[in-house]
Amino acid sequence: MAAIIARALRDERLDAADGYRLIEASGSELVAMMAAASEMRDGSHGRTVTYSRKVFIPLTNLCRQKCGYCTFARGPRDPIAHTMTPDEVMAVARAGRRQGCKEALFSLGERPEEVYDFVRDDLARWGHRTMSSYVGEMAGRVLRETGLLPHINQGIMDRDEIASLREVSASMGMMLETVSERLHERGMAHFRCPGKIPAERLRTMRDAGELRVAWTTGILIGIGETRAERVDSLLAIRELHEEYGHIQEVIVQNFRVKEDIAMRHEGEPSTFEMLRTIATARLLLGGEMNIQAPPNLTPDAHGMYLLAGINDWGGVSPVTRDHINPERPWPNLLELKQTTADAGFALRERFGLYPEYVREGGRCGGFVPEAVRPAFARLADDSGLVKREEERW
Question: Which of 22, 64, 330, 340 is spaced 20 to 30 Å from 58 by Cα?
Answer without folding.
Answer: 340
